[in-house]
Amino acid sequence: MELKVVTPIIELKQLRNCFRCGLEFRGDSQRVCPSCAVPKDIQRPLNPTLSFREKQVVELVCKGKINKEIAFALHLTEGTVKEYLNRIFRKVGATNRTELAVWSITTTRIAEIVQNGPALMAN
Ligand SMILES: [Zn+2]
To answer: 62-108, pLDDT tens digit by residue?
Structure first.
């Protein structure tokens, strides 16, 4: 009689501890459990850390200032303003200043609601 050993795939996978939350899960080479493996884009914080200077630039962009005006206001060169903008775009995931302004207004509003409670949402 031939003995057939059928090992379920799941048994081949090692039991591991999630690198992040410590939860036990089965996986081949993953270091984090499925729930921690959620795409980073989704986990991208609403509030990336902007430096003081970057925040100033964002504020001026929201006021509709062009690079030349921002450079003048912050005593920077236009080239430096562009560098700041590109870095900020990457940080917040925006592709242009309109998106950046929308991002800024939205996150500011969310921060206000978090701080002051949902009562303000009606405004
Ligand atoms: Zn996990």
So the answer is: 999 999 999 999 999 999 999 999 999 999 989 999 999 999 988 88
pTM, whole model, 2 decimals? Answer: 0.56
Mean pLDDT estimate for the chain = 82
Listed in sequence order, the residues at least 6 apart from 79 whose beta carbon sits closer than 8 Å to its beta carbon are none
Ligand 1 centroid from CA 17, angstroms: 8
User: How is residue 122 annotated by DSSP?
Assistant: G
CA 89 to ligand 1 center in whole angstroms: 29
91 CA to middle of ligand 1, Å? 25
Tell me, yes or no, whether 58 and 115 share the same domain: yes
The three-class DSSP label of residue 25 is strand
Q: Examine the domain organization and report whether 83 and 99 are in the same domain.
A: yes
Ordered alpha helix ranges (H), 27-96: 40-43, 52-62, 67-74, 78-92
